[in-house]
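Reviewer 2 asked us to include a model.

Predict the structure of this chain.
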Amino acid sequence: MVLVRSTHVDKPQQHGNWLAAVPASARAEAIKAHSEWLSSHCKNRPDLLLKGQEMVEILGTLNLDHDSLVAALFEPALEAGVIQLEVVEQQTSGPIIQLIQAVQQMQTISELQHFQHGKPNTAQIDNVRRMLLAMVADVRAVLIKLAERVCFLREVKSLDEETRVLAAKECQEIYAPLANRLGIGQLKWELEDLSFRYLNPETYKAIAQQLHERRVDRETYIQDFVQQVQARLLDEGVEADIYGRPKHIYSIWRKMQKKHLGFDQLYDIRAVRIITRSLKDCYAALGVVHSLFRHIASEFDDYIATPKANGYQSIHTVVAGPAGKHIEIQIRTQAMHDDAELGVAAHWLYKEGSSAGKGHGFEEKIAWLRKLLAWQEDMAENDELVAEIRSQVFEDRVYVFTPKGEVIDLPAGATPLDFAYYIHSQVGNRCIGAKVDGRIVPFTYQLQNGEKIEILTQKSAQPRRDWLNTSLGYLNTARARSKVQTYFKKLDRDKNIAAGKESLEAELAKINVPVGHAEQVLERFNMQHLDDLLAAIGAGDVRLHQVVNQLRPQSSASASAERLERLTARAKPAAKSGKAGKQSDVTVEGIGNLLVQFAKCCQPLPGEPIMGFVTQGRGVSVHRADCEQLEHILEQHPERGLAVRWSARESGNYRVDLTIDANDRTGLLHDITSILAHEKAAVVQLDSQLDSLSQQARIALALIVDSNEALTRIFGRLHQVKGVHRVDRTKQ
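Predicted model (structure tokens):
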């Protein structure tokens, strides 16, 4: 293994050697001054000063700016509590302090290792979210933390075994994947090799010994190979640097495990790198190598044409070199090489005096965020320890951008209106449309990680009351709903009463209940007058569906049961159940000769979890296990619940109702019905509605399908139709 860079300081008394080795420049003089000051404050802990200086050297190879180097210098002493941030603030500038705080925020990553003893609490989850936002805001914080971990692994060899193993495990599972995602090869390799050394000491030692024993022969062989290729490159007019490259023990071990090979069977123990001056010379060099030696076709990869996920580009080929020995060759340009070694640092260079993290292009921030999101997937693959925090931090949140590149953290499922109200109440109130990555989207569109959101406003615009209808999906955050409710509260009470009455009348008309019957439920909502309830509905303080559910006809327990029984009527003929007979789709466990009907309210399909309910005189009604109607009635009659299961014969015709929301366009219905015809799903009913203001179409379908698997295929294909953004089973 090759270290990132040998430090100039190994012992406390060598502080002077380090200062003398710093190249002369205005920036270097400032670093020296800070180092001298820190030395005077770390007299009892010179190791902290040395660690800071070592971090400065590592980050110097990554071309980081002055602020980053100063922040790295102070970081170990600050983390150990030897000096306080307030004291450092007097010696440095505001941007450096902000960068130090971002680095400190990354300490939260270590908490991931402790969640194995229990679920993370809200404070821990919030800490990790803040860490993520800090990382998005300034990638330099990540680079400083990676350098600190490299230094820690270098020094941990002198500590006890438990500490070594814990540190190595953390770096292998979290920091090495992060360095890989950022494309920083020189940090990734050292983190991996040192971690492997402490976690698998015997294997590490065995591979290292084999590399050492054959080093002289290998270097002589590579030197002869390089001379031969270099001569031919010159003859062909291809200007390039060619040299042997170091091998990393962890990568050797990984390849041995992956390909089930012994050490002697590996192709890339002998390895050469060719650095060309241009892209076309990469392929010219490849042609030269393949003309000289027979290449192994199965070992060829063109990562220039198809870069890796972290942006890595290079041509990899393996040839049978002199004496038939296999040798691996990497061919790339200097820019590609810099990318491979420096990764994200090669693109996020800071000009002296610029604001940290403020000058980056939006596309760079998008790419950076996506690398972070990919990194959290890597973490979960390595260890189940982080599964809980991963789901709560990443899967329950979306991280999107404003047009200016500011990162906004919202709950998963948030819509453009949620985003607008997060920015400001007036932005939400005046919102007339939204663009996501430059394209117009409906208000019900659910935002995805890394998208740029632009809100379109108009001074005369105002919120719509149906935004508060949760079933329509306009608002999915409590914050946004609260702001809309506040807006309507401020309207004239009479307007709220009128609006509430209009909304309630419309919903109650569907169940043939006069609005005056709402007086029966006033006490449930702690109100004395019907107008108070109507005003509360109009203002959004009381959810419409809460009132409607209270006013459904025959709301007693027995009446509810009868209502549920009526919902079992279905196009498919009832079949008797008991033992799974030829005509039976469902088996009622433990009971024979019962009439079985399928509930219309939830329309269960073969393959879905189901539950039975014993009706009065109509046999057993079969529901989906997650049916809300069933849940409600079982609260009143738990003794009438019955375990049922699908029998071996599950084929047949089953009705299912769907609702599709989509952007209206020419050919939309044709595309949808073509898919249904291809899937052999019979359409028995179709109805469509168009909102002319938002140009949103809502299509209601009744289909006949033969199984849940068929419906799943239909769902998948409908979601792929241009403009479709929601497909749901309709609740009766």
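Residues 338 and 346 are 7 Å apart (CA to CA). The mean pLDDT is 78. We have added this to the supplementary material.
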